[in-house]
Amino acid sequence: MKAVLDANVLFPTVLREILIEVATGGLYQPVWSQRILDEWRHAAGRLGREQESVAGAEIALLALRFPDAMAAHDGQRAIDLDLPDAADRHVIEAALHVSAPHIVTANLRDFPRHVMQGLGLRAIHPDAFLLELIRLDEALVAQAITRVHAKAVEMGGDITLPQMLKRSRLPRLAKLMKG
């Protein structure tokens, strides 16, 4: 299963690392476009030049890890869509280009359900996406989350796993992992 990862789920480090760990386990194939990656780098750059450089390095590493993740798109298929933010059209175009049925995004309001259904696509929040993946392979998703949490703690983050998930805007996953 292919899923386009919007910039707003790539930029928060913990969320990105969870999604990438799960993809590494083979539950889905991540997809992004150059414009999505540029948006990530730009968002990081608002925190300073160092963060922009770190994002650039992380993008390069992801390109090496997932050489088939880059979606080139022509920008023509979704041109007449009525979207709340026309600047998000490129995300839909990437999904259409690679026949990815899912767009994982924290901004669901920018991808109206009726528009998405008409294109055979589904915008899904990362919390719901990970809950769907956990139904496919609970152990793999739990191990991915545990690895990301261990890394966060190792880097000096004094945070519980449920707290980490809640701060990453994954409240339902946090509740599931706590119970």
What's the structural blueprint in terms of helices and strands?
Elements: E1 2-5, H1 7-10, H2 13-24, E2 29-31, H3 34-45, H4 49-65, H5 89-98, E3 102-104, H6 113-118, E4 122-124, H7 126-136, H8 138-154, H9 161-167, H10 171-178
Parallel strand pairs: 1-2, 1-3, 3-4
Structure, explained:
This protein has 179 residues and is an alpha/beta fold. The chain is built from 10 helices and 4 strands; from the N terminus they run E-H-H-E-H-H-H-E-H-E-H-H-H-H. It has helices spanning 7-10, 13-24, 34-45, 49-65, 89-98, 113-118, 126-136, 138-154, 161-167, 171-178; strands spanning 2-5, 29-31, 102-104, 122-124. It has a 4-stranded parallel β-sheet, with helices on both faces. Helix 2 (13-24) crosses helix 8 (138-154), helix 7 (126-136) packs across helix 8 (138-154) and helix 9 (161-167) packs antiparallel against helix 10. The longest helix is centred in the N-terminal third of the chain and has 17 residues, at 49-65. The chain is globular and about 50 Å long. The model has no long low-confidence stretch (mean pLDDT 91).
Give a quick rundown of the structure:
This protein has 179 residues and is an alpha/beta fold. 58% of the residues lie in helices and 7% in strands.
Helicity, as a percent range: 55-70%
SS strand fraction? 5-15%
Q: Largest beta sheet: what is the strand line-up?
A: 2-1-3-4
Poorly predicted tracts of residues: none
The 3D shape can be described as: globular
What order do the SSEs take from the amino end to the carboxyl end, as H and E?
EHHEHHHEHEHHHH
How many helices? The count is: 10
State the major sheet: 4 strands, parallel
Q: Give the class from helix and strand content and strand pairing.
A: alpha/beta
Radius of gyration: 16 Å
Number of distinct beta strands: 4
- Please state the average pLDDT score: 91
Distance between termini? 28 Å
